[in-house]
Q: What sequence folds into this?
């Protein structure tokens, strides 16, 4: 590994199929994994202390297969938050080992179908945090399921660039390596469903100012409601067909009066994790006033 690798905490290795098309895929994947691990470290380190900040430093790059050696840099925290004088190596080892647990978790899996599957991983990471013994009081925090799922999603998205015949590993010097599971996927929309404990819905009639219409029918519309930007799916198929066939003219700055279903999703702690808007019925379209005149609320449009 050379002298430089001895200063590194871990390595990401991507083995690629030589003379294969789309060579940039390897670099996209490596860049994504590094960014993912930086975000993951921010979640992991909060289990020990919210005042610790961590960044990754590039130590070395090896060719052949692409190996990137990285090191955690930990920024100082108040002395009264720790009791061990040499706390940085202990926290650094915790971050390195916790990431390996995260990589190994996906072995033999294609996705996560139940949030309870994460409990063993939560327990292992919590145990690692306790073993650092860097706090005066053993008040360590459990990693939340959503943070673990977001981390897994980031890794699987990064690995999606790789092609058949490619592979990737997570390497810690002098310890067993962990292979990334390229068949594991986790869609962003599935994370909400996994962590949501309760969904509360209501229907209201609303005036929504059109910010960005969906002319192709493949994405949501963006509206302004007061000072908020609202993304909504229009479920009124009859009205939508008229709009897409140009029988109804709606442009940015126009308003629609609509019956809207608003759904709030909460996790097991009662925290709001997502809000979704669905337009059930478009009642009317109110065209924007002349920009030199007061609008329908008596003030002037702010473009």
A:
């Amino acid at each position: 590994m050379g002298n430089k690798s001895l200063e590194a905490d871990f390595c990401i290795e991507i083995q690629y199929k030589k003379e294969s098309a789309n060579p940039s895929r390897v670099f996209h994947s490596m860049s994504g994994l590094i960014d993912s691990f930086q975000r993951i470290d921010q979640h992991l380190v909060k289990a020990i202390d919210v005042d610790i900040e961590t960044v990754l430093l590039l130590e070395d790059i090896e060719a052949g297969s692409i190996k990137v050696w990285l090191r955690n840099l930990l920024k100082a925290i108040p002395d009264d938050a720790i009791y061990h004088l040499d706390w940085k190596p202990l926290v650094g080892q915790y971050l390195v080992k916790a990431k390996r647990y995260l990589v190994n978790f996906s072995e033999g899996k294609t996705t996560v179908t139940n949030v309870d599957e994460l409990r063993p991983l939560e327990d292992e990471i919590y145990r690692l945090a306790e073993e650092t013994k860097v706090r005066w009081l053993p008040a360590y925090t459990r990693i939340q399921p959503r943070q673990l799922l977001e981390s897994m999603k980031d890794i699987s998205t990064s690995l999606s660039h790789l092609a058949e015949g490619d592979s990737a590993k997570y390497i810690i010097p002098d310890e067993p390596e962990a292979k990334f599971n390229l068949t594991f996927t986790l869609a962003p929309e599935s994370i909400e469903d996994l962590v949501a404990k309760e969904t509360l819905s209501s229907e209201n009639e609303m005036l929504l100012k059109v910010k960005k219409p969906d002319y192709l029918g493949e994405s949501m519309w963006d509206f302004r409601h007061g000072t908020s930007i609202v993304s909504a799916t229009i479920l009124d198929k009859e009205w939508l067909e008229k709009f897409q066939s140009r029988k109804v003219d709606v442009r940015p700055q126009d308003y629609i009066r609509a019956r809207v279903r608003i759904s709030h999703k909460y996790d097991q702690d009662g925290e709001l994790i997502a809000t979704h808007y669905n337009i059930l019925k478009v009642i009317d379209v109110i065209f924007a006033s002349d920009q030199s005149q007061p609008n329908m609320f008596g003030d002037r449009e702010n473009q």
In short: The chain has two domains: 2-191, 196-286. The first helix runs from residue 2 to 7. Strands lie at 10-15, 54-62, 66-74, 167-171, 178-179, 198-212, 221-225, 228-234, 255-266, 272-286.
